[in-house]
Amino acid sequence: MSEERDKVKELVARARAGEVDAFEALYRAHQGGIYTFLRGQVRDAEVAADLTQDTFVRAWESLARLREAGAFRGWLYQIARNLVLDEAKSGRVRLEVPASVVSSEENPSVLERATEGDGPEERLASAELKEEVWRALESLPAAQREAVVMHHVEGMGTAEIAKVMGVRPGTVMSRLARAREALREKLGGYVEVSDE
C-alpha cells in the first residue's frame, strides 16, 4: 500500500510540475473508481461520464491547491461528490443508485467480479441478487448509501470517507452501521451483510 501511495505522490508532484503524462497516469488509475462512484449516485450513465470528466478537469485546474499528495484519491472523491451535489441542487440530476448499475469493462464492480466463472444458473441467481442489492442500496438515505458505496464498493477506509464527506470518522462508522442494519433487514433472505 505504501508503494502505491509513493507512486501516487510521485505522479502528483510531476503533474504539479506540468507533466501531462503524469496526470494522464493518475487519470487512468482513478477514472474507473470515480465513474463507479458517480454512477452510484446518478441514474444516467452519460451524466456520470460527464461528471467523471469534470472531476478530472477540476482536479487538473486546482492541483496546486492539493495539500498532501498522498491524499489524492480522497481529494478526487471530494471533487466528484461536490460536483454531483451541485448537479442535484440545480435539479439536473436525482441522487440514487439504480438497480441496473453498469460498470465499465475495465473496472467491473465487486458484485460483477464475484460472478466470473459461474455457470448459467449461478449467473442468473447472481443477477437477481445484484438487482436486489442495488434496490436495497437505493432505498438507503443518501449519506448512508454514499458511505456504503465508498467503503464496500471502492474499498475506502472510514478516515478517508470522513474527509470526502466532511464529517468525523465516528459519523461514517455510524452511517455504515445503520446502513448495514437496514440492508440486513432488506436482504436477509438473500445474503449475510458483513460488519466489516
Can you walk through the features of this model?
- This protein is mainly α and 196 residues long.
- The protein folds into two domains: 1-96, Rna Polymerase Sigma Factor, Chain: A; 108-189, Winged helix-like DNA-binding domain superfamily/Winged helix DNA-binding domain (Arc Repressor Mutant, subunit A), CATH 1.10.10.
- The chain is built from nine helices and no strands.
- The radius of gyration is 17 Å and the shape is globular.
- The two termini are 19 Å apart.
- The model is unreliable at 96-116 (pLDDT under 50).
- Helix share, percent: 55-70%
Sketch the topology as an H/E string, one letter per element: HHHHHHHHH
- Unreliably modeled segments: 96-116
CATH class of the largest domain: Mainly Alpha
How many helices in DSSP terms?
9
Choose one word for the global shape: globular
| CATH fold label of the largest domain | Rna Polymerase Sigma Factor, Chain: A
Termini separation comes to: 19 Å
Structural classification: mainly alpha
Number of strands: 0
How would you concisely characterize the structure shown here?
This protein is mostly helical and 196 residues long.
